[in-house]
Specification:
Blueprint (H helix, E strand, L loop, with lengths): L5 H21 L8 H16 L7 H20 L7 H19 L9 H18 L5 H27 L5 H29 L6 H18 L12
Helix pairs in contact: 1-2, 1-8, 2-3, 2-8, 3-4, 4-6, 5-6, 6-7, 7-8
Length: 232
Amino acid sequence: MNLTPNWRTGWPWLTALSAAVCIAAGIGAIDAGWQFVFKPLTTLMIIAHAWPRGAGESRQRHLIRLGLVLSLAGDVFLLWPKQGFLPGLIAFLLAHLAYIGAFCAPVRFAAKPVVFVGYAVLAVLILSRLWPGVPTALRLPVVAYVVCLATMAAQAAAWWRSRAGTPATDAHLARAAALGGLLFMASDSLLAINKFATPLPLASLWILLTYWVAQWCIAGSLAPRLTLSSMR
């Protein structure tokens, strides 16, 4: 007998619908003002997806929740791309610090040094592409952000690689975190390239799509709580 609430089955689709409306507003398919409703709403729905998860690891659960709430603040700031860019950057930097802490709960920091080297090279490549177009006043914050972002993605990947040969559930959660970190790095790289280097066609589509899939994966790296149906 399945006692899991039906809304959980439809929640990913409702979240995807909210994201699609925001993306449509971002690319000009509908009124741009809808972004002010559906951008924070989509992230709130991902927070709702994460909130009941996190069985057995309270520190990781609290830090991922914190990272998602900080991301929501960043989303709101970036609704005003000029005035809100620096506050949004700071909010997301703090979110990545929270995610780093969360991904250090199951495995020590930099447990897989080779992974960190790979992400460091990727971060340098991204910065070299952006550097000529970054205003002098923003260079230090951008460098700090890219380092933090790459560290978050590398720690998530290190968690995944350290789970080779472990039970399938553990490996699945770690893989979700690793994919989320990689997609977050892709999303922010696209955003930065669009802002500081070359305008991208349909930029909102690619930036927001990768961003919300990344956040969904990070939320999904928390173990689901047991339900009555799962214990039968």
